Every structure is written in C-alpha cells, then in structure tokens.
Amino acid sequence: MKTRLYFALLLLSGMSLQSCMQTTSLQVLQPADMRIPDHIGTIATIDRSKPASGFLNVLEGLFTGESIGQDKRGRLKALDGLTHSLTRTPRFQVKPTDVELEGTNAGENMAQPLSWSEIETMCKMYDADAVLAIESYDSDVMVTTSSYLEKYKDKEGVERTRTKYRATANLDVTIGWRLYDPKTRIIEDEFSVHLDESYSATGDQESRAKSSLSDPVYRAFELSYRAGQRYGMRIAPVFVNVSRSFFSKGKGLYKDKMKQAARLAESGNWEEASAIWTQLLSDADQKTAGRAAHNLAVASERLGRLEEALAMAEQAWTKYGNKTSRNYIGILNQRINDDRRVRSQLPSRT
C-alpha cells in the first residue's frame, strides 16, 4: 500500500512539474561518426549494386516473397535517404546521378572497388570531389503466420476458447557503401548499414491477419530510406531538431513576471525574456529564482552560448536546488563535446 502511494505521489509530482513548463525546439549540428578530408566538398552519388545476374535475383525473390524490382526501388530509396541527410549539413554538397552499374552476382556482397580512372571520369563529369557508391544491397521481406488459443466469454458469461491467427512480417535491409577519394586515391570509407524490423497483426482467420499487416514492401522501402539517412549521418554533421523545457510559472508576486517572460520566449524574444529572468535571480524567492536560472540556461543554449548555458544550469542546481537543471547539466556537457567534434569535422577556414 505504501509503495503504491509513493508511486502515485511521484506521478502527481511529475504531472505538476510538467504543467509548470513549456517546450521549445532548436536545431543543433550532430557530429558525424568520422572525419572526411577538407578537400572533399562535393560528392556525386551512384548505384553500383545492380545484381550482375538478374536470374539469380528473381530466384531469390521467389523464395523470400520479394516482388520483382523491389531491390531496385529500395536502392533508389536508400539514395534518397542519403541525399536527404546530406542536404541537412553545411559540410557537403551532394549531386545525385543516374549512374547504375553492376555489382556482384546477387547484390549481397561488395565487388572489387571501381578503378580510379572510372572514379576520376565520373568526378569530372559531375564536377565532384569524390564518389559515394552503394556497392551492395540486399533486402528480405518474410511474412509468417501462427495460431494460438484465446480465452473469451460468450454472451452468457461462459468462458470459451477460440483460435486466433498472428501474422508477423520480418524485414531486413543491408547496404554496403564506399566513398572514393580520387585526389589521394584512397577509399575513405567502406561500411555496411544493417537495419531490421518486425511487426505483427492478428485476426480470426489467417488471411485476415495477413491483410491487417501494413504493406511490408512499403515498410522495407522506408527501412532502406532510413539506412541511407543513417549512412549520411556517419560521414557528415547534420542538423537535427531537439527540444528543451523551460519554466513558465512562478509563485506569488513573481507569477505574472514568469508568465510574461514565457510569452516573450514563446514568441521568439529570448533576449527580452532573459532580462526578466535575470531580474528574478536577485528579487524572487528561492524556487522561482531556480526556475529563472534554468530558463536563462535554455536561453543561452538557444543563442549558441553553450559555456554560459552550462554555468547557469550549474548555478540553478547547486545554488537553488532546481532538480530539472541537474539533468540539463549532463545534456549541455554532451552538447559542448559534440560542438567540439563538429568544429573538428568542418573544413578549416583561412
């Protein structure tokens, strides 16, 4: 009984805290997994994963349930996802091409790298510094069904059992990439992205369970798109949206001031809102001052002043005991580390 009461109080406390807060979103540059040489600024993308043996690929489709042409559309989706990632970075300009070359027999493994003369020709043709190729692509879509017994009560309240069916879709996408640098004649990256997904639906008949599944082929295309995005984020810092919470309410004499500052922040006037929160640091009670300090940390982060944001969050926690700021300190430390990594991944400006 005491345990349930404790968790109920925690839930009410969390709900009360959320009602005192608003959320703002901002874009931040997320660092890449690796650094690409500065002389590479424009990348041409190609598909070099067309199966060399179409017959083998059709046979694979017959056994795995893939539709003919599914892999080709999946490869195009992967390139779309890659392009989307690289349009969200200040690091590269991407030039999609219509180049489609044969890879290995079944498209599962990477073939020998392209010759440097081929890479140099494509770079000249598309005025690019490097070539990024899908070197292998394989997707599998498998739908299975199983039956199970379900207990239920009929209209008279008598417990009975009935047979139900579950259809499960298992999706698997593996994409191999190579990034060719003709200036140094080095393959800067050779990496495979693997994503999988499973989901299910039920029905009173096997056919109904299957028909209740969302289209697995479409879902496989979306998986390929996400795999392309994932690889883009491996080689380039990209902008992502993050959210931050700030306090919008205070107590007593400071209630109206906190509301006014929150309205200013909501309309984008963070500098004016910060002036009010700064005043509250010296005038308000301990709790409201802690909330104002936390808000000043959020405002500083939005304005790109990360060290200042960290110092204010630490003050909100250590001086005023604001527990929300304790978690925010960790987030800001990570952001500062990420910012250093991003700076090292962007070309130096002279």
Describe this protein's structure.
- There is one protein chain.
- The protein is an alpha/beta fold and 350 residues long.
- The chain has two domains: 21-30 and 240-345, Tetratricopeptide repeat domain (Serine Threonine Protein Phosphatase 5, Tetratricopeptide repeat, Alpha Horseshoe), CATH 1.25.40; 42-234.
- It is built from eleven helices and seven strands.
- It has helices spanning 2-19, 54-64, 70-86, 116-126, 206-212, 216-235, 255-266, 270-283, 286-302, 306-318, 323-345, and strands at 21-30, 42-50, 93-102, 130-153, 159-181, 186-203, 238-247.
- The strands form two sheets. Strands 3-2-4-5-6 form a five-stranded mixed beta sheet.
- Helix 3 packs parallel to helix 6, helix 7 (255-266) runs antiparallel to helix 8 (270-283) and helix 10 (306-318) packs antiparallel against helix 11.
- Mean pLDDT is 89; it is low at 1-17 and 55-68.
Largest β sheet strand count, sense and barrel closure:
5 strands, mixed
Helical content (DSSP H or I, runs of 4+): 40-55%
- Spans where pLDDT lies below 50 across 5 or more residues: 1-17, 55-68
Domains (count): 2
Quote the distance from N terminus to C terminus. Answer: 68 Å
| Overall 3D shape | flat
Key terms:
350 residues; five-stranded mixed β-sheet; disordered N terminus; 11 helices; single chain; two-stranded antiparallel ribbon; flat; alpha/beta; Serine Threonine Protein Phosphatase 5, Tetratricopeptide repeat; 30% strand; 2 domains
